[in-house]
Amino acid sequence: MGGVVYEWKRFWCPREGNIVLTATGYLEDPDTPWGHIQNPDVVSFDAISDVPCLVLLGEPGMGKTHAMRTQAAVTRTRVREKGDRVLSLDLGRYSSEERLVRKLFQNAIFTAWARGEHQLHLFLDSLDEGLLGINTLSELLADELAEYPLDRLCLRLACRTAAWPNTLEDALESMWPRHKVGVYELAPLRLTDIAAAASVNGITAEDFIKELSRTESAPLATRPVTLGFLLKTFARRGALPSKRTDLYQEGCELLCEETNESRRERGRKGQYTAAQRLAVAARIAAVTVYGSRYAVWRGVDPGDLPQEDVWLRDLCGGHESCDGQVFEVDQDAVTEGLDTGLFSSRGPSRMGWAHQTYAEYLAARYAVHNDMALAQIMSLIVHPADPDGKLVPQLAETAAWLAGMRVDVFNEILTADPEVLLRSDVATAEEAGRASLVDALLEGYDEERLLPGPKHLLELPQASPSGDCRPALTIHRR
Known about the structure:
Elements: E1 11-14, E2 19-21, H1 35-38, E3 43-44, H2 45-48, E4 53-58, H3 64-79, E5 85-90, H4 97-103, H5 108-115, E6 120-125, H6 127-133, H7 137-145, E7 153-160, H8 166-175, E8 181-186, H9 191-200, H10 205-215, H11 218-221, H12 224-237, H13 244-255, H14 261-265, H15 274-290, E9 295-297, E10 309-311, E11 319-322, E12 325-328, H16 331-338, E13 343-345, E14 350-353, H17 356-369, H18 374-381, H19 396-405, H20 407-416, H21 431-446, H22 454-458, E15 473-475
Parallel strand pairs: 4-7, 4-8, 5-6, 6-7, 9-10
Antiparallel strand pairs: 1-3, 1-8, 2-15, 9-14, 11-12, 13-14
Helix pairs in contact: 7-8, 9-10, 12-13, 13-15, 15-16, 15-17, 17-19, 19-20, 20-21
């Protein structure tokens, strides 16, 4: 399935806008009759193509490069009759200022535009990779572009979300009026995109979607890099792994891999392995999930850090282990952990989880990997003010992951809050465990501890425009 090109229509969201997902985790389709109401911040490239300066961000493996190439080709066809020109460059190909200046500012298309009166559409891909070869790249682009007629320039800059330099953004906003600079992030895939990809690969879309639903792996399917992994697995086995923990382990580690071929070929894979990045991500998950934090602040000390944020510096220190080896968690390690497909932007200098499921799984993985004592784990997930020892509602999903990974946690939750276990890998638990859960649930129903009240029985959820009767999920990015 390698090398397959999908004719997806991709969507973009302002960096500080909101992305609404269906309850199962797919992008709420903006192209459906109600989609523009359900997902008002998410737009196609056509809707923002008139913005003179566009910064196009995305997580690794989200398909930024393909989206850029597609838009450059569409723009080239659209402007040809008007006499305007398109110039596309991959900034990752250049390792010196001199070579980039020759290929960009001394390019015949560029110089003809500078002397003429027509418009130039300049597509610059892989800024993040270019910064690895030319550490003065941001300053070079800002200083040089400022010398040219910006009123006739449409600039499109693509970069990994975590690597986007605030200094360049400030420079662009000083060159163009602020309202003419747009910073957008590539949105996840829609259900229709995933179905189309399955069909292209000779897989019955309905069967594949059902399997994604059974394994609750839609969050992995909405990223092209992990969708490919799921499609290959399904094609080979006719099914996805029965245990969600196995599926998420493989999928999350893949999101931590350097899958960009040009980076791999040029030896720019970073200092850390995918397993090490995943270990760091699990640490971040533990802090954000158990500590009720929302985002990681990557900038300098603001002096008034929002209570819902954790400062990157506070995530550093000590060691983590993977594959039998111990490594130090310094700022470089945390930075590389954030620069993976597990995270997305929450505004300038802020990174948050690309999907909450990643955080919940990895927070559980962190506790298990570090052999936390049962008492310590329960102290993290049990509500301290509940006399019956019920779990913190916001940690129910993490608790379900924990129960699927450790039998002692499963048994402890079985006594205190058995309904939570219905969210776990209970289908693959030992027969005795399944029987105990059934007994605990029946006992709770008999004692009317688990029966919903009349209000819950009468107020049924309304179907969303996607046909999903569960509430949608909004990724709040402000």
